[in-house]
Amino acid sequence: MNGKPEPPARLPTVPWTVGDLVKAFLLFLAILLIAVGAVALFHLIAAQEELSSSPYAPGIVLIVLEAALIVPVWVFAIRKHRASWGILGFRAFDAGQAIAQIGFYLFASFLVNGLWAVFLAQFGLRSQPNVLPIFGGGAIGLALAWFAAGLVAPLVEETFFRGFVFPALNQRFGTWRGVLGSAFI
Predict the structure, then answer these.
(1) 75-107: per-residue pLDDT in tens?
(2) Whole-Å CA distances, 164 to 12, 54, 65, 71, 126
(3) Residue 143 neighbours by CB distance under 10 Å
(4) pLDDT at 2 over 90
(5) CA distances, 161 to each of 4, 142, 169 (Å)
(6) DSSP 105-139
(7) What pLDDT was estimated at residue 7?
(8) How many CA atoms lie within 13 A of 148 on its CB side?
């Protein structure tokens, strides 16, 4: 090395366009409306037939809706443009380094959350509400919540926003507008 910093890696050129992004959002909205309609219909039928639903149903519905963000990515990147999952960010990585980073950031997150809880308690403020009841409570609900928040949400959101939305916006509008547009969305 000659002491000069390395230039940042360039993003790969992606074949999908901003128009594909708009269509992807419309597809996701259609999926969302169908899912909401199906849930409403189920509740209507369950109320008339006096059926009870699983206490885990709301959490499972949330996981399925979150995972549904992958469908537009598959339709408009993988299927339409025959792109690889690698262009969306799925590449080989050093597992040991990843585990070390996860441990570090988990520790840092607990530390910051602990300090935040002390701050809130000092001023008599409430923290965010307990979301565990959405997932049904108990050990199964906790497992569903961890699965949703620790695996599905990060994987899907990073794929959709960083792997699919940002590269198209960056390619069309430049880095800063791409970053701001992706963050806004």
Answers:
(1) 999 999 999 999 998 888 899 999 999 999 999
(2) 11, 34, 18, 12, 37
(3) 14
(4) no
(5) 32, 27, 10
(6) HHHHHHHHHHHHHHHHHHTT---PPP-GGGGTSHH
(7) 54
(8) 22
Instruction: Look at the alpha carbons of 34, 37, 43, 48 in this order and tell me if their dihedral is positive or negative.
Output: negative
pLDDT in tens, 101-158: 999 999 999 999 999 999 999 998 887 788 888 888 889 999 999 999 889 999 999 9
Residue corresponding to tokens 């969306």? 88
* Spatial distance between the Cα atoms of 136 and 82, rounded to a whole number of angstroms: 40
Give 88's DSSP letter: G
Residue 47 to residue 53: CA distance in whole angstroms:
10
Which of 81, 75, 88, 99 shows the shortest CA–CA distance to 24?
A: 75
Average pLDDT for 2-22:
77
Place of tokens 């997150």: 109
Retrieve residue 82's tokens: 């025959």
